[in-house]
Specification:
Structural class: alpha/beta
Number of domains: 4
Order of helices and strands: EEEHEHEHHHHHHHHHHEEHHHH
Strand content: 5-15%
Distance between the termini: 66 Å
Helix content: 40-55%
């Protein structure tokens, strides 16, 4: 084999030590402090290294990657640890960095996507926001559990306890209010009109000291995370303004109504306009199941330049939405390719699409779910949405939802053709009305 990168280095990353391998030199060990990372950059430049590869190990690679790329100007490759597995019986930190250097010099490693600049900040803030949403939902469960323990059946009569009416009643209960009529007055008008009797019955509970304490703790924690989410929204808005600050002359979007964001809507002014400016007017909201918030999450994970994936197949493979090959002789297996966060976003979109009664993709997903099961149906629909997203962002081709009627018409045409083929094989005459 011919070396295609003669000035390549490999680094094995640990929490305390970093092992650096340069061709023709003994492995050098550095500590993981910031000043030592700068010494690594000096050491690599001293030996005329132009490119370096390292494994994506936890969060330890972040600073090392930034310093070597930004301050030292090196071509840094972050690679999947599954590509650098050492031979059996040769697993040491020193041998690992030598093996990474050797694989990199022969061009046998694939580069991971790493966001940079403002997109990196966008990704960090968005991921933190999602963490806060998960934490807040955990405390909603705690509130529900405390109410159930005291036999306050609000969870049975309200669609969500954390709604405006539910939170007003819980706050009043924590402040000592026990009069059910007064608690009912805190509800929205529609609830008082349609569910007043049920709410009155649900509010008759068995109050206990420990139940009220748990309810208060969960209530306060929930609103703490709501405040944290609000701060993340402010940071996201600031980053979006920074990205689009030089795009003031971009044509204003039409007054077409944006899709409603039902859950966890970010408090960002003109979110759709920001996203359209970032993508040059290519509107992902036209794709089935994608709202502006879903689009924001995809941009934070994938970035804006999808051209780095040469084809839609490369893109869906990177997302983990296509099966990996694991064939040997008569054995045929589909190997798991990993679960990138972006792929999971498409799967969440696919779950909602399958339940939709007005989309062609929903009809396709339900038909496949009946034959193959829900897991394969969700993955298949997610892959179709990912392909459409890649085509839209790279080629600019717009997707138009044809609806269930068009899909069923195409399915009927396919069934008629199949029946005619069967009739020809059986030498039978089949007539269609």
């Amino acid at each position: 084999m011919k070396k295609i990168r003669p000035f390549a280095a490999g680094i094995d990353i640990g929490s305390k030590q970093l092992f650096v391998s340069v061709e023709g030199q003994e492995v050098k060990v550095f500590e993981s402090f910031t000043e030592d990372i700068f010494k690594i950059g000096e050491y690599l430049l001293e030996h005329k290294v132009t490119t370096v590869a390292m494994e994506a190990t936890g969060s330890y690679w972040f600073v090392l990657y930034d310093i070597l790329a930004e301050h030292c100007g090196l071509d840094v490759w972050l690679v999947d640890g599954r590509q650098t597995k050492q031979l059996p019986g040769r697993k040491t930190d020193i041998k690992d960095c030598q093996w990474i250097q050797q694989l990199h010099s022969y061009g046998m490693l694939n580069k991971c996507y790493v966001s940079s600049g403002a997109l990196k900040d966008l990704r960090s803030y968005q991921r933190m926001r999602e963490d806060h949403i998960r934490s807040a939902s955990m405390h909603v469960n705690h509130m529900q559990k405390a109410l159930i323990q005291m036999n306050i059946k609000l969870t049975e009569v309200l669609s969500q306890v954390q709604g405006a009416s539910g939170m007003r009643m819980i706050k009043a209960i924590l402040n000592g209010e026990r009069d059910r009529e007064k608690l009912l007055e805190l509800c929205e008008t529609s609830l008082k009109k349609n569910k007043s009797e049920q709410i009155i019955k649900a509010l008759e509970g068995h109050y206990t000291e420990d139940g009220l304490f748990i309810l208060e703790q969960a209530h306060d924690a929930y609103f703490f995370y709501q405040a944290q989410i609000k701060q993340c929204d402010e940071k996201l808005s600031k980053v979006l303004n920074q990205i689009n600050k030089d795009k003031d002359d971009f044509p204003k979007p039409t007054k077409e109504r944006r899709k409603t964001i039902r859950h966890n809507r970010p408090n960002i002014d003109n979110l759709g306009e920001h996203l359209l400016k970032m993508t040059g007017g290519r509107d992902a909201q036209k794709l089935t199941g994608i709202t502006d918030y879903t689009w924001l999450k995809l941009i934070s994970e994938i970035g804006l330049e999808l051209i780095k994936w040469p084809t839609e197949k490369h893109f869906t493979s990177w997302l983990g939405l296509s099966p990996g090959q694991h064939h040997s002789g008569k054995m045929r297996r589909n190997k798991q390719k990993g679960r990138p966060q972006a792929g999971q976003i498409f799967k969440v979109v696919a779950q909602s699409i399958i339940e939709s009664k007005k989309t062609a993709l929903g009809a396709f997903g339900r038909r496949l779910r009946a034959k193959k099961g829900p897991a394969k149906a969700i993955k298949a629909v997610a892959r179709k949405i990912a392909i459409l997203y890649w085509r839209l962002m790279v080629k600019g081709s717009e997707f138009v939802e044809n609806g269930v009627e068009h899909y069923e018409k195409q399915m009927m045409i396919s069934k008629v053709k199949a029946m005619r083929r069967l009739g020809k094989e059986l030498n039978a005459r089949i007539e269609f009305s």
